[in-house]
Design a protein that fits this description.
about 450 residues, alpha+beta, nine-stranded mixed beta sheet, five-stranded mixed beta sheet, 23 strands
């Protein structure tokens, strides 16, 4: 992608309305534009990151046995009246009427709708377990939306819903999602710590929030330092082995970890002082088991092996991709801008032509761009006539992991400069060696 043809509206000054780092950097880097209170457009750079985050989420949900669907954003109020939540949910729910004066709502979550789908088609325990998920826009009418996409009114959500015959099956489904979340966040360069959490308006009696530690975190969290060294399950994780999955969950829930709402000072005091980690954290995922909270009022039941009808036991599992991007920036940035983990960076390589229009610089840049593109790497090629300082500042601001800098002196010497964004390390590399390496890279 040539920068001269790319839509990247960089802001040089810090926006006055941005209170936290992620909001400031996302606006400055041209990732988003605010359209109203808690409402944002995702511009090309931001959309690329969002797509990569969603792809990792999809891969790990699919690996864990969940099946992707897509449900409407506008829901009938009747379903919510069946469950008893329509009047209880509060003012965060945006209630509307269609032209026929039927009560509708912009969905803040989808427990009722997915349970309606389930009860319409699934009648036997032989069709269980079942886990359905989608990635869809939600709306919650926050009293005071703030911090950019960290707490917005309209946001993207991956929400999954499991259905099982009994608690034993539901717990196994919960565990699969628990491990799936560990892997998902790890692939994005994050160490997410699962902490006991309040179930809130979703309901139920078993819940964990996945928290990343960050100085700018919105809430206080308390955990054992052992979490910092726990190994995340690898690619060979067998999600069909319920016992092995339960063992992983046991390892990740034995040390103390709780959000401020669930913190127990008497238990915390028994943790050795040197092992206590009290910090600030940002929630990046939340999972719930709620049993028959929705299946009973909505009549979602199946015939069991005993020939009797059973209300299914359910759970829901959420990740907010838009919020997650802000959390990653909060945890990974410096004074110059964003530092993206390589797995979700908008581009893999930032190719900087220090003298666009120079025949030799143009030729070398074209060869480097072609070599990386041929092996599936995303390249942002700065072919503009901007001054060198501006080029470097832009690449640092948008956080591309690797910069390849091509200038007349280097080309004359047969070299280019390579910079690693995360460490700031720079080194010269022969052009032929770089191109050969790019052609071999996978």
């Amino acid at each position: 992608m040539r920068l001269s043809r790319y839509f990247l509206p960089i802001l040089k000054e810090n926006p006055r309305e941005a209170e936290i780092v992620s909001h400031r950097l996302m606006l400055r880097a041209g990732m988003i534009r605010q359209q109203g209170a808690g409402s944002f457009s995702w511009l090309p750079l931001g959309k690329r990151v969002l797509d990569k985050v969603n792809q990792i989420i999809r891969e790990e949900q699919n690996r864990a046995g969940a099946l992707e669907i897509l449900m409407p954003t506008i829901q009938s109020a009747e379903l919510w009246r069946e469950s008893g939540r329509y009047d209880d949910y509060g003012k965060e729910m945006l209630r509307i009427q269609d032209r026929h004066e039927r009560d509708m709502l912009y969905g803040p979550t989808n427990e009722e709708m997915v349970t309606d789908i389930f009860r319409s088609y699934v009648k036997s325990y032989k069709d269980l377990p079942l886990n359905l998920y989608h990635i869809q826009w939600k709306f919650r009418d926050e009293v005071r939306p703030r911090f950019g996409v960290m707490r917005s009114r309209e946001f993207l959500m991956k929400d999954a819903y499991s259905f099982d015959l009994d608690f034993e099956g539901a717990r196994a489904a919960y565990n699969r999602m628990f491990v799936s979340y560990l892997r998902t966040f790890s692939r994005m360069g994050l160490k997410a710590i699962p902490m006991r959490a309040d179930t809130g308006p979703i309901g139920g009696d078993l819940s964990h929030e996945f928290i990343i530690l960050a100085e700018t975190g919105e809430s206080a969290v308390f955990c054992h330092r052992d979490f910092l060294d726990l190994a995340v399950p690898g690619d060979d994780t067998d999600f069909s082995d319920d016992a092995a999955i339960a063992g992983i969950v046991q390892d990740w829930t034995t040390p103390y970890a709780a959000t401020e709402e669930m913190h127990e000072e008497d238990v915390w005091s028994k943790v050795a002082e040197g092992d206590r980690l009290a910090a600030r954290g940002i929630e990046v995922g939340h999972i719930f088991h709620f049993g028959d909270k929705y299946s009973k009022p909505l009549g979602a039941k199946v015939t069991g092996p005993d020939g009797k009808d059973h209300f299914v036991s359910g759970g829901s599992y959420g990740i907010g991709p838009t919020r997650l991007i802000a959390a990653i920036i909060e945890a990974s940035h410096d004074e110059n801008g964003i530092i993206w983990p390589e797995s979700i960076a908008p581009f893999d390589i930032g190719l900087i032509n220090m003298k666009a229009g120079d025949a030799e610089c143009d030729r070398v840049c074209a060869e480097i761009e072609a070599a990386y593109t041929a092996t599936g790497h995303d390249v942002l090629y700065d072919d503009t006539d901007q001054r060198p300082g501006g080029k470097f500042a832009t690449m640092d601001l948008i956080g591309i992991p690797w910069q390849v800098i091509v200038g007349p002196r280097g080309v004359a010497a047969g070299e280019v400069e390579v910079k690693h964004r995360a460490t700031g390390e720079r080194h010269n590399k022969p052009i032929a060696e770089l191109i050969a390496g790019a052609r071999k890279a996978q």
